Write the structure tokens for this entry.
Amino acid sequence: MDAQDAITVEQAAQNFAAEVAYWREVRGLAKKALAELMGFHPSYVSHMESGRHNPTADFARLADETLNAGKAIWHRWCEYEAARARQTTATAAVPSTRRTEQPYATGSAIVVEHDAARLDYDGEFYRLTMRRLLRNTGDAPITRYLIRISVDRYPGDPERSNAHYRAHPLTWDELALTAACRGEAMRWQAKHDRDAFKEVWLLFDNDQGRFPLYPGDSVWIEYAYTVSDTKWGRWFQRAVRLPTEHLEVVLAFPAALDPVVWGTETSMTAEASPLPSAPGRREEGGVRLFTWSTARPAQHARYRLEWRFRARPEQDVNQGEFK
């Protein structure tokens, strides 16, 4: 039995619904607005996300295109179809065109013991630094870790955003992606490369050797990248895709811009609501720091921090998101 065989139809359907909800929120669309853009009844997206409707190929394909999700929604539908085919007949082979690459090796299982994000802004560029303490709870070594990068200039207006990124795509050169583990540089490989969406494998190796994450071990990894504020603006969302024990976000903005920050929480069973606690705030050397954290967040939960700069009331509110 491989990693995909462990996914039940119910789990696959829930993962599909979470993926649709995630990208809908990234694009800043209400359920009704997305349904109208896709040409469905206003309640259809709500029923799909709540599990009252089963995923379909037409819905998955159209949702992926409308939300510019870089095939992420489509891949979740492929997983659902594969799980459904296995349930229908245990002996039937799953068509190879419907199988999707599994993130990690057979027998592996990752738990994120600590997830810490710090976003620094210098008035022109954002630099995101992610630190994660990963634990391998499976019985096979882990040799790579998948990360996602997505941006959205105009949430709520996907056609405008798509046109913007066709003209101004996110590039690897500007990202200047770096990654490290145990003081060793990590190689990385692009899995998906779209105008506003990237998926990247961080590899537990480099030119000097290999350093896999073995069963029972924990290790800190760190990666960072840069994007200008013309492509990423005033919100930052964290989606909980793996079991996570502690999640923390720090936003560091120039105090001269007079930033204010607020946030929302969304789960599989509830619409966006204010964060249960307000972000902490302090100033250090001309930088205003906002910190928010939570313990044991629910899987598929999404936490969004938003901000505005009161010293720049005339500037357009750009939007963007990284994870």
About this structure: The first strand starts at residue 110 and ends at 121. The two ends are 31 Å apart (CA to CA).
